[in-house]
Amino acid sequence: MSERDDRAFTDRMLQDAMSKRLSRRSVLRGAGVGVAGVSLASLLAACGGGDGGGGGDGGNPADVFSGQPGDKVNFANWPLYIDQSKDRTATCTTRP
């Protein structure tokens, strides 16, 4: 195909697309087909075979929680979650 034929084909496709009316029914039908496709894909992924994915072999909880507990707990918190008084000082209390 030459460039001229490609352009003519593209022009015909555009004219065909523009001549069709876009109705509410066709938009809802297209949206329904899209939602059904996504739902079907996720359903098939969730109900797939048992040989892939997952979080490992399960392990034994006794292996994780064995040993003596430590005397220190470290944690991180987003600073905007901490309540502040009007003078911008934190109102958190700590226990010894």
List keywords for this structure.
single chain, about 100 residues, elongated
Task: Give the C-alpha Rg.
Answer: 31 Å
Q: What portion of residues belong to β-strands? A: under 5%
What is the helix content? 40-55%
Residue ranges: pLDDT <50 for 5 or more in a row? none
Mean pLDDT: 76
How would you summarize what this structure contains?
With 96 residues, this protein is mainly alpha-helical.
Structure description:
46% of the residues lie in helices and 0% in strands. The protein has helices at 3-19, 24-46, 61-64. The longest helix is centred in the middle third of the chain and has 23 residues, at 24-46. The protein is elongated. The chain starts with a helix and ends in a 32-residue tail after the last helix.
Strands, helices and their partners?
Blueprint: H1 3-19, H2 24-46, H3 61-64
